[in-house]
Amino acid sequence: MSVDVRDEAGTFIAKWRGRWPEWELAMVFVPAAQRPLVEAWYTLLQEFTDAAWTGDPTPGLAKLAWWQDELGGWAKGARRHPLGALLQAHPAPWLQLGRALPDLRALRDDAGGDAPVAPAATAGAHAGEAFAAAVADCEAVLFRNGTRGAGDAAAIRDSLFDERALLHALSMDPIGAVDRPPSASRPGTRPRGIHAALVAARLARPGAPVPPLRALFAAWRGARASG
User: Fold this and answer.
1) CATH class assigned to 5-225
2) What does pTM read for this prediction?
């Protein structure tokens, strides 16, 4: 009997839903046709941030190296991970995203070393810039008909710092602080605006989901704030 890999992706998506139950309410602000794609995309990003920022760095680096190889395959029409059944067919710059994964890892700390992950080919002057740019390019394809705004990457980078602070608060992993100036950049897509708003709301009480009414209001504001 054949197995639908989209069903296998459900295991990963369920983990994301379990961590972010607020999205069950927030999805009302996302067009119905985009909802499965939103779930798959943010599940994928959660796999990246978990590998880059939590637990023992050595297994995390190995996972990021695997994902680099996997995303390179997506760019060529191949896939192994179940999430690829939901994402790979979209013409997003998967190779660019894979090459930027070391830049995401750089946000954990400033340590160098002989990591098994190839250097980010487009690394910017500051940690997180190359990864944020790659995510912005992917989200433009997935949710905005390929149109990327000038401030999209900056808004994503701001959100990454908030996610990083949230994971640190939950796990107490030894992740060093990274200072950043406040940014007025608007999220480029509605899903990104909602996600950023929910992360910011969760930071007020990292150990518990945002209460339903507050989550709904945060998601509404995030949707309205998107470019």
Assistant:
1) mainly alpha
2) 0.86
